[in-house]
Structures are given as structure tokens and as C-alpha cells.
Amino acid sequence: xxxxxxxxxxxxxxxxxxxxxxxxxxxxxxxxxxxxxxxxxxxxxxxxxxxxxxxxxxxxxxxxxxxxxxxxxxxxxxxxxxxxxxxxxxxxxxxxxxxxxxxxxxxxxxxxxxxxxxxxxxxxxxxxxxxxxxxxxxxxxxxxxxxxxxxxxxxxxxxxxxxxxxxxxxxxxxxxxxxxxxxxxxxxxxxxxxxxxxxxxxxxxxxxxxxxxxxxxxxxxxxxxxxxxxxxxxxxxxxxxxxxxxxxxxxxxxxxxxxxxxxxxxxxxxxxxxxxxxxxxxxxxxxx
Length: 288
Hints:
mainly beta
């Protein structure tokens, strides 16, 4: 089953080469506070390229008290391998609200996994961690989706990134003919939903569709019995965060999503090995 609004196919991957210095014109965020950051917010990595954008999938806090946003790792590339696949404490990669660049940086990229360009690329780890500036306000409510924590799948298959034993939020939603798990996703052309048909390696395939620029955007689990987005409810839906938009692949259905289980499991594994990892223990905000 699909949502009622139909976008085009994902056109490609945004490549942003990190420099060893700040992007020209980057400034600290203004002193004003209260700017709201939410799922489905479109983000850019340079004020000069507003049409090269990705999307925020979830916002919240990590175990170290930092404000965090999550997007897709492939939104950046680093052919030199100087920054990919490691925590980045340097403020070399600012992130801006595409629709309010004048605010200044919302935060800075602290980690990204480049699944294609890096020497240690891995398709299950296609995510980005952004540390947000302290002055912003986190919100669980996006234009269409309200995220209610992270999805937990007791008894589900563990993410390949999980330590043993896996936590419930590191286990995958079931897929295939005997399962009816569905994703609800939000992007440029509205909200869509569809059944998960595969969960290989923690990458979900679903009929829920997306388009270019939606990379990193939110996917929530459709809680059985809850309302579907429709004209009657303003295309609104709520559910636990289940993943982020990844790509269009050669498959049926072609829409792929990196599961929240893969992301959370990798964060915990990295933090266990090297405590202090940005985003470790990520919890979706419950602020409205």
C-alpha cells in the first residue's frame, strides 16, 4: 500500500568535500534562542549551494547531554579519508537550515559514514551525526510526522552492527509475506507509507517512496491500529522512529531506508570501544 502523494525517483547522491578549514562565511549561531529543529528539516552544508540539500531524520539528545540530529552519511564524501568514519571534534563542516540560512550554522557534522567513497564503507552504517548548537530547541513534530521515541522489536533479528546481547531498539522490524510492518515517511512531496518487504542487513525496503534531497529524512513505524495519513487528518501520522531515507536501489520495491536499529547499534558499539562518541545513547526528543 502506498501514500496518496507520489514523488519522483531519488536522482542521486549529494557529494560535499570537507575542507580542513571552515566554509567561507560560516559564523557562530546568533545569540537568539528558541529556533526549532525537527524531523524533515532540509539542511545544506554551504550557504552557496542551497539546492544541494539533505534532510534531518530525527533529533534528540545523546548520553553525554549533547543536542543531536541524524541524517544520511552519503550526504557527504571525503576522498582523502581525512574525516570520514571518525568523530570530528573540529568545526570544519557547518550545517544550515536550507530555509533559514541567515540564522547561521545549526550545528556541525561530528561523524559521517561514506558507504561508497571511504575505504571502510559499509551499507549498514550510512548515517551522519550532527551536533546542534545549544541555542536551538528540539521538536519531535515535523511537518507530517511526530516521532515517539525509537522503535523496539523484542525478539526481532539483531542488527548486524549490534553487540551481543542486542538491545530491543537494536533489533529489526520483521519483513516478508508473514509480516505487515509498514513505514510512514516524510519528504519534499508530502507523506507516504508502505509495507516493509525486506530487512537484509538492517536496510529496509519499502513501498514508501522518496525523491532526491530526501536522503536522511524520517521514517516511522506505523503502529497497528493508528491512523494512516490522509486528507481527513491533514496527512499527519505519529509513531516511533524506525530509520532514515537511504536510496533508490535496483529492486522491487526500490525504496531503501537505513534502520534506526543499525544506527543505534553502531553508535553503541563505537562508544563501547571508545567512550565519548558523538550521538551515543541517542534518544529521540519528546519535546513537542
